[in-house]
Amino acid sequence: MTQRTTIDLEALKRDIDELRSRVVAKIGTEDAEYIKSVRLACRALEVSGRLLIHVSLEPFSFGVGVLSLGLYKILENMELGHNVMHGQYDFMQDPTLDSKKYEWDIVGTAQTWKHAHNVTHHINTNVIGKDDDFGYLFFRLSSDVSWKPRHLFQTLTNPLSGLFFDHAVAYYHARPSEYLTAEKGSTERSKQLRQMFGDWLGLARKSVGHYAKEYAFYPALAGPFALKVAIGNACAQGLRNLWTYAVIQCGHLPEATNTFTEEELKAETRGGFYLRQIMGSSNIEAGPLLGMFTGHLSHQIEHHLFPTVPAHRYREISTDVKRICERHGIPYHCGSFARQFTSVLKALVRYSLPTASNDESRRGGHVFTLPTEQPALQAAS
User: Fold this and answer.
1) Which residues contact 90 (CB under 8 A, 6 or more apart)?
2) What is the SS3 assignment for 5?
3) How far, in Å, CA of 251 to CA of 257, rounded?
4) Judging by beta carbons within 10 Å of its beta carbon (0-12, 13-18, 19+), is residue 194 exposed, middle or buried?
5) What is the tens place of the pLDDT at every residue in 225-266?
6) Sequential DSSP letters for 127-177
């Protein structure tokens, strides 16, 4: 049954902005100490992981080494790199934690990722045709996306992409269409071409350096055990990729999350932007440790509302965000890791078929009547 709810977007905006002000006022020493401790943990995990992979003579210590190195890569990628590059720790004025200078331990460059993620994704969250993260224009997870024959195989190709997730995302963000938007022959087009080729060169350098470090330099140090070290490094990277893939899928693609159209963006107010971030995101039930290893993207809703606030605060913020959602009658999507990922798999199956009609769209079910003449945002209850 369709439920109709009126959302006072100005009141929602005031509530979210007030919460932001309260949280920002607290940012300081505690946050600086936290991220320093994360960086220290990263270093310890990397050193122990690489040593164990090198010196291991039996499967158990080799496996512990792979796990340790994999956890380093996960923590560095998600809790350190992702959050630092959002500018969450720029207040420290530490050049090693500066969002403009930080380069993470991953095949893709920070520069291309920051534009595609911080700008394109966070501004156009779940807007079909504008948000690259919603299926990366390759997978179909909404009936608003035109069906193509390749979608029949997405239940296999989507999970397999998780093994090479860092490569897939890095190269996808550097595709020509991400740059070449100006008219051919124009001065702006020339600038875009220079930017694109410059970024491609940077990506090539980063990729070669990454491969050389993981599959030439460290293996060479092991002499006759070089192959073992290369395999261990590849396993650790695969572990990181699969984990990152799973966390990101759970953040925006479970069946409860909603999609939006470009038309709806035209009249969107700040309050409407907040509503879209909430309705287009899903949380994972997680304790402090699991939350840390997701980069606190277990609180994807809070991250999309406050991307520049230190992520370790999302857990405490979530209580207030839930209250705000209840006050305004807005669904707060949250579930266990297993439930959210299973929901993503169900969506992959459903939308792999051309028979997935608009009646099954993520935009049906719960209708929000806005107190202005703006287009109504529709969402699944």
Assistant:
1) 97, 98, 99
2) strand
3) 9
4) exposed
5) 999 999 999 999 999 999 999 999 999 999 989 999 888 888
6) BTTT-TTTGGGTS--STTSPP-GGGGGHHHHHHHHGGGHHHHHHHHTTSGG
